[in-house]
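B., you asked whether I could sanity-check this one before it goes into the benchmark set. Here's the sequence:
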Amino acid sequence: MPKSRAAPRLLDVAEAAGVSLATASRSLSGQSGVSEAVAQRVRGVAQSLGYVANVHARTLAGGLTSMIGLIVHEIDDPYFSEIASGVVHAATSHQRLVQISHSGRDPEQELRQIRALIASRVDAIIIAGSGYTDPTAQQESRLLLARYADSGGRVAVIGRHELAVDAVLPANKEAGAAIAEHLISLGHRRIAIAAGTEGLTTVEDRLTGLADGFGQAHPPVTATAVRSDFTREGGRLAAEQIISDHPEVTAIIALNDAMAIGVLAALRSHRIAVPDQMSVVGFDDVSVAEALAPSLTTVRLPMATMGQLALEMTLKPPAAEPRRKATSHQLMVRDSTAAPRSLGEETPLLRDNERNV
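And here's what the prediction gave me:
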């Protein structure tokens, strides 16, 4: 018998009756292709378990559709919209629907969304976005998802999480190293980083990759990180602080493209030319990055493919150990980066009492 749960799933009925998921669905919906004896047994088991058919617990049998729950950090962030696009397209090809929720990078809100999706009897849950560096931040989610998986649900994440589930792992450290090497090769040695929210594994992994790349520079790089929200407005505010407090820098690295767009907006408002007076680099290569003026140098991560891979993981039977799938990355050099001006040339960002970072 399956483990007890407040709201039995169709999978529980199928396992208890000793039939396939499709047979259980046909038996309960009165479709053909199932003997009356089997159908009666399935209906009896469903009644004993207290199973009630639910629109969110449909299956593929007879062309019906099951539901996948997708939790993203920010619905309006193009990084997550492109991941969601990959999930939706892959789900459609497998006759699944996708229910999208928003966590706002808040582990408590994420936990509430997980509970809501489980209560809605989704067949799988995908969490897209950074995990948290504090291992206790997802402790309740870890326990809840473990119970959900034990009862037949499937779970996958995109990003580094403290969750024992299948994961698609973006090449964040490798991307950071590639960006650092690019700026070093252009001659930049005074660099600022619009670093994003503390406590996110994505932010810390990207900073680690940058540090690894900077460590190869001769002469050494002087860099400073300015923390702000991992959003467009966060990027603008970080750039304002960099312009005010660190006028000596010649390049700004934003830890995602949304922040980079905010950085470009701040530089434009101060009439600081990009890349003549300041180079700017982002992460992710969202669809608008090439269309910006100037077009944004960034590292491409395959967001739509990441969503597709996560969805496909949820369609596979669980493995003895959680699966891990690393992604590729590609440096996209565009118009927002160039060699810094020579040290003897004046720029509006340099002051007479130039300060060290």
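One thing to flag: Residues 61-169+304-328 form a domain with the Rossmann fold fold (CATH 3.40.50.2300). Otherwise nothing jumped out at me.
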